[in-house]
């Protein structure tokens, strides 16, 4: 969808979130920029340690010491959130974490917890709050919701608990739902159900979703646009179809090759050797160089910036410098992507 000219709901620009320890400073998010537009689903994908969850927490104002959002801008509906201004938009952004059991308080009923969110964010109380809690549980597919609203989290299965957590998030009446690995703790069948549910809710509630995951298969199913993250940086951004048809960054190609079903049946699933490095210094080279099968001399000396590699598609890799000449009518590196 061409969103040229539309104002983004969320605009993240040159975000830097660091963790100061006695020994070193970890640059967990190091110059990340991207937009999310109303009603859009944007993905951030990368291995564990890439900085994607720290990006999500930074956006929600959930970074705790020794971490700090040190520089950059996070604007929601044009309002700057950094510098302690999250409270003005507290209910407009909600998050669903990976593990539903840690997202709920075991000593309160599910209904109590949803009603508390309704009281804080929508000023609903009493019968109206109870009715809305039941409606939300029904909306997320909990059967027999009028009875189950009075049950405790331990009485719900893992999949049902994650549905209840999504209902709690919706009770905030958010415009942007940040989903941080929301299906990773669930088995494959339940995972598919939760992804379908999020898609339905997005259409019904007119939500924008920022989807954080390590799983390219989940990204393919859920997102309109994807940002591939590695060692604190976005290394490639594109609309989902373009990324899967024509990945440009060697790291993206490695992630795609590791999706089951994309390799011939008798071949072993390829993996990317090595681990994501922890960025502690300002980048002066490509952070992927040690693991990259296509690296060459300059990769050890030059930190690649983003270059346009196709319409609305950019990658931070020296292989693609000056490769793409935009044609008349191309929308270039337009809104929604890493900037
Ligand atoms: S800049 Fe070099 S090392 Fe980095 S991804 Fe591109 S080819 Fe590989």
TrEMBL record:
Keywords: ATP-binding, Cell membrane, Ion transport, Membrane, Nucleotide-binding, Translocase, Transport. GO terms for cellular component: plasma membrane. Coiled coil: none annotated. It is an enzyme of class 7 (translocase). GO terms for molecular function: ABC-type nickel transporter activity; ATP binding; ATP hydrolysis activity. Residues 10-256 form the ABC transporter domain. Its main location: membrane. It catalyses: Ni(2+)(out) + ATP + H2O = Ni(2+)(in) + ADP + phosphate + H(+). It comes from the Archaea. It is a peripheral membrane protein. It is found in: Cell membrane. Its EC number is 7.2.2.11. The complex is composed of two ATP-binding proteins (NikD and NikE), two transmembrane proteins (NikB and NikC) and a solute-binding protein (NikA). This is Nickel import system ATP-binding protein NikD. It comes from Halorarum halophilum.
């Amino acid at each position: 969808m061409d969103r040229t000219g539309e104002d983004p709901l969320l605009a993240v620009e040159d975000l830097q979130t660091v963790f100061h320890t006695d020994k070193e400073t970890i640059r967990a998010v190091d110059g990340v920029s991207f937009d999310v537009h109303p009603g859009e689903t944007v993905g951030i994908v990368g291995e564990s340690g890439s900085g994607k969850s720290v990006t999500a927490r930074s956006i929600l104002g959930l970074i705790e010491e020794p971490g700090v959002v040190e520089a950059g801008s996070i604007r929601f509906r044009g309002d700057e959130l950094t510098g302690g201004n999250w409270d003005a938009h507290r209910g407009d952004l909600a998050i669903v974490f990976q593990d539903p059991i840690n997202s709920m308080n075991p000593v309160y009923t599910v209904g109590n917890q949803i009603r508390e969110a309704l009281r804080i964010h929508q000023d609903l109380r009493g019968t109206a709050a109870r009715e809305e809690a039941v409606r939300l549980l029904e909306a997320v597919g909990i059967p027999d919701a009028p009875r189950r609203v009075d049950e405790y989290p331990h009485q719900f299965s893992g999949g049902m608990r994650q549905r209840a957590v999504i209902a709690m998030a919706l009770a905030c009446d958010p415009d942007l739902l940040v989903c941080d690995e929301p299906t990773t703790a669930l088995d494959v069948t339940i995972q598919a159900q939760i992804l379908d549910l999020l898609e339905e809710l997005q259409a019904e509630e007119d939500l924008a979703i920022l989807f954080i995951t390590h799983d390219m298969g989940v990204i393919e199913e859920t997102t309109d646009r994807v940002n591939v993250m590695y060692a604190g940086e976005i290394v490639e951004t594109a609309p989902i179809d373009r990324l899967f048809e024509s990945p440009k960054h060697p790291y993206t190609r490695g992630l795609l090759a590791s999706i089951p079903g994309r390799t011939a049946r008798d071949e072993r699933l390829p993996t990317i050797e090595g681990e994501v490095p922890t960025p502690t210094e300002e980048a002066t080279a490509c952070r992927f160089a040690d693991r990259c099968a296509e690296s060459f001399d300059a990769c050890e000396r030059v930190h690649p910036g983003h270059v346009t590699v196709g319409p609305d598609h950019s990658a931070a890799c020296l292989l693609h410098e000056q490769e793409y000449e935009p044609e008349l009518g191309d929308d270039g590196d337009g809104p929604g992507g890493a900037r």
